[in-house]
Amino acid sequence: MAASLLAREVSDLCLGKPALRSLSVSATVGDALTTLKRSRDNYISFWNCNHGHFSEVDKVDAVAALDDCRCVGKVCVADIIGFLCKEENLSNPGIALQAPVSVLIPKTGDFVRHLESNASLVEALDLILEGVQNIVIPMEIGGKNSRKKLLQNNLSKSTFHNGRQYCWLTQEDMVRYLMNSISLFSSAAVNPINSLDIINVQDIPAVHYDDPASSALPLLAKCLEMQTSVAIIDGDGKLIGEISPYKLNSCDEDVAAAIATLSAGELMAYIDFGGPPEDLIQLVKERLQERKLVEALELMEDDSGNSSVSSSCSSSSDDEFGVGRSVVKSVGNSARSVKRSEAIVCHPWSSLVAVMIQALAHRINYVWVVEEDRTLFGIVTFAGMMKIFRETIEDHDLGKALKKSPT
């Protein structure tokens, strides 16, 4: 029964999803930032083609090149912030924003893959387990001729490629679909996660509270690819919070200066709900002056004086990926009490279905695993959860084959 359910087409999971807004890979980092700020999208997709501003003659060539148009990556504000944090870019952020957006797209790894709308969910699951992070699905709107006509009429539209619109199929989409049919997988779903070999305990993205926030940048880049966050721990290894790329998505680009000058614990307070405390803003400015990063300082002052662009992060609690509640906690031996976004946690003995519910409720792709005293034990992700469902399908198919085989 499970195998039959998962043979359904991925188009079933895409109903009602918005079309991808996109830019050409020839766009600049500044173009991407402007587009993200003007839209409600968390990500902008990039394609190896450009359907905008064609002349009437060029339209013929564009239609002929339908099959050459491919999504090659996606970028969010957190990607741009990480790029601006580099020393050479902090020295001259204006020039950095003129760099081609291709500098933000990973050169290695198979992070984006196209699938046809009639592909099965099992095919999508297998891609995720192979390491693909983003799956692009076409939204069907008619046959070949109608596609060509639509393309000719919509070459300037940023959501049309190959005469069709596309959407992301996310890990959350797949896990939510599986959750709705959890009774078919009850034998595995009720087991504790420490019995399922899905807790990552070896490669945990974590930094100490007093470490420079900049030390988290390589981990943040990896977390953006893997759709997780960086854990913040105290001297005893206890989890006290996180730096979430998804939270950075609601910030302005001047937070790059805070990452370059603050500790990890201070950064948690800087990017939390309600905007950064005034004392931290002043501290960032003082440290920028000490390092003679004049243009980064001017960027902060320009934003703080612009009523339309706040230097703080959004206080919305219902953004696409979700963030935890804001609390006040005294951390380790530090004298500072910091306001932080609470990390979502479970325990090694929590059941798989309970962890799935937590992640889906908070719209995150992972849950931190902690001991009773909140010592960080590991992390469990949607990809790990989907591995269990895939193994259940294989076991089911093997059982059917054995029943049919002659004795």
Automatic annotation (TrEMBL):
SUPFAM superfamilies: CBS-domain pair (SSF54631)
GO CC field: cytoplasm; nucleus
InterPro entries from the UniProt entry: AMPK_gamma/SDS23_families (IPR050511), CBS_dom_sf (IPR046342)
The keyword Repeat is annotated on this UniProt entry: yes
Residue spans crossing the bilayer: none
Key words, A-Z: CBS domain, Repeat
Coiled coil: none
UniProt-recorded name of the protein: CBS domain-containing protein
Organism expressing this protein natively: Gossypium davidsonii
